[in-house]
């Protein structure tokens, strides 16, 4: 059995990851600082602790994944989150993306369809004393209308088309980052800005995310 890395080794790996993100083009100092502050090893299954600071997606419970660190950093950077903003995250998953956002904005509202994932994510948030994250189980494609409007929305699962329930919950001049595509082969990350005149859409880069599924699973 391989021994779990100690704190010094984890810190070394974390710094190495942040340096790698810099080399990959992440420039926002606030984002890099948030990535360094969030211990990714807390958010991966214990069997993957050794690989927590590798720049790759890893499997988690319920057939889902924790996103590649570069993708988390990139989506966070292009979201351009300010310290006074209210952000909606669709797809809590392990909680890693929400934890990064929590260091950058006033409050994160995060929706997850699997109760098992949400229970574990909430436990991690408590462990790390991240008190500005509010979560609920629900259909992420419907958003969180009771807390709308949001300054920013980030979706961490791929929709077949842009969910207009989420667009409705954006403030004017608010932005949404969302992967869209009917298969994993044609997914692209989109940045959508809501204006008085309508929507401005920019295609950013090809990605591969688990699908955004409407409704709730029979067993959560």
Summary keywords:
about 220 residues; 7-stranded mixed sheet
Fold blueprint:
Blueprint: H1 7-23, H2 29-37, E1 58-59, E2 65-66, H3 69-79, E3 86-90, H4 96-102, E4 107-112, H5 115-127, E5 133-137, E6 150-155, H6 164-168, E7 170-180, E8 188-194, E9 199-206
Parallel strand pairs: 3-4, 3-6, 4-5, 6-7
Antiparallel strand pairs: 1-2, 7-8, 8-9
Helix pairs in contact: 1-2
Can you give a write-up of this model?
By secondary structure, the chain is α/β, with parallel strands linked by helices. The chain has a domain at 55-206: 3-Layer(aba) Sandwich (Rossmann fold), CATH 3.40.50.150. Helices cover 28% and strands 24% of the residues. The chain has six helices and nine strands, in the order ααββαβαβαββαβββ. A seven-stranded mixed β-sheet has the order 5-4-3-6-7-8-9. Strands 1-2 form a two-stranded antiparallel sheet. The protein is globular and about 50 Å long. The model has no long low-confidence stretch (mean pLDDT 93).
Order of helices and strands: HHEEHEHEHEEHEEE
The geometry reads as globular
Supply Rg: 17 Å
CATH topology category name of the domain at 55-206: Rossmann fold
For the record, the CATH architecture of the domain at 55-206 stands as 3-Layer(aba) Sandwich
* Spatial gap, N to C terminus: 32 Å
Strand content: 15-25%
Total of DSSP H or I helical runs spanning 4+ residues: 6
CATH superfamily of the domain at 55-206: Vaccinia Virus protein VP39
Strand order of the largest sheet: 5-4-3-6-7-8-9
Derived from helix and strand composition plus strand pairing, the structural class reads alpha/beta
How much helicity do the residues have? 25-40%
């Amino acid at each position: 059995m391989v021994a779990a890395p100690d704190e010094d080794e984890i810190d070394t790996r974390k710094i190495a990851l942040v340096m790698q993100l810099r080399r990959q083009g992440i420039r926002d100092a606030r984002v890099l600082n948030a990535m360094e502050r969030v211990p990714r090893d807390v958010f991966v299954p214990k069997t993957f602790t050794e690989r927590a600071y590798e720049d790759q997606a890893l499997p988690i419970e319920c057939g889902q994944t924790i996103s590649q660190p570069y993708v988390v950093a990139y989506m966070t950077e292009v979201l351009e989150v300010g310290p006074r903003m209210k952000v909606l995250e669709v797809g809590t998953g392990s909680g890693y993306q929400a934890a990064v956002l929590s260091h950058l904005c006033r409050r994160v509202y995060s929706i997850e369809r699997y109760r098992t994932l949400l229970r574990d994510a909430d436990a991690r948030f408590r462990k790390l004393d991240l008190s500005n994250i509010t979560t609920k189980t629900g259909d992420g494609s419907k958003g969180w209308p009771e807390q709308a409007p949001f300054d920013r929305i980030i979706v961490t699962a791929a929709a077949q088309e842009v969910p207009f329930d989420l667009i409705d919950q954006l403030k004017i001049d608010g932005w949404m980052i969302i992967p869209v595509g009917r298969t994993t082969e044609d997914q692209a990350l989109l940045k959508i800005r809501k204006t008085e005149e309508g929507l401005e859409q920019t295609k950013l880069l090809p990605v591969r995310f688990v699908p955004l599924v409407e409704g709730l699973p029979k067993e959560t």
